[in-house]
Specification:
Layout lengths: L1 H15 L10 E12 L4 E13 L3 E14 L4 E13 L9 E17 L2 E16 L2 E17 L4 E12 L5 E15 L2 E12 L2 E15 L6
Parallel strand pairs: 1-11
Antiparallel strand pairs: 1-2, 2-3, 3-4, 4-5, 5-6, 6-7, 7-8, 8-9, 9-10, 10-11
Length: 225
Amino acid sequence: MKYYLTTFIFILTISLGFSQTSPEDKLGSWYTYFGNHRLSEKLSIVAGGQIWAYEPATNLNLLLIKAGLNYHINNKLKVELGYSFLDIDRSIQGLEGKHIYENRISEQIAFKHKLVNLPIDQRFRIEHRLFNLRVGNSVKHRLRYRLGTKIKLNKTLFIRAHNEVLAHIEKDFFSENRLYGALGINLNKSCNLQLGYLYRYINDLNLHRLQVSLFIKTDHRKNKS
């Protein structure tokens, strides 16, 4: 495990070196870690977070920490109740108030199936976003729909691709689109590393981001099916 963590940190450091200072038409970086831990036939928990960066380490844009509880209806369908805390730095965008803090509650349903021989995963999420601003608090609600696939190349390598549409409920319905593609590396049976590119369209900005992601799955069921 120490070897895998060292490799992850090394790759993360290299990709940080390519980040730039401008939010648009520059190559920024997103870093992701998530663990999915199966507790029983019906229950699992997820925990992890993300760091978004405009430039190497000294100009972070966002820190997200998340935890969630999943209920598995069957092997293909599950629902989730999640909570996230976010620290958002807007200073590089010239906006007032250096930091915004957000508490986010989410409900989610995820479904896996096949289209011919292509594996498909779909995720629909509702988010309730509670912002702590300098001038007071505000609440916003958002809808998210993601459609993706994971294509195995061999026992070690795979391709991950998805597109996600985000929409506000209150006004300006369409708010964001995220298109993602990555090469995945299975480090072992329970851990994979993804090196990818994310194109993000938001508020009429076209953002280009490197993404480095580490995912870990563990299974604590006594009798695995």
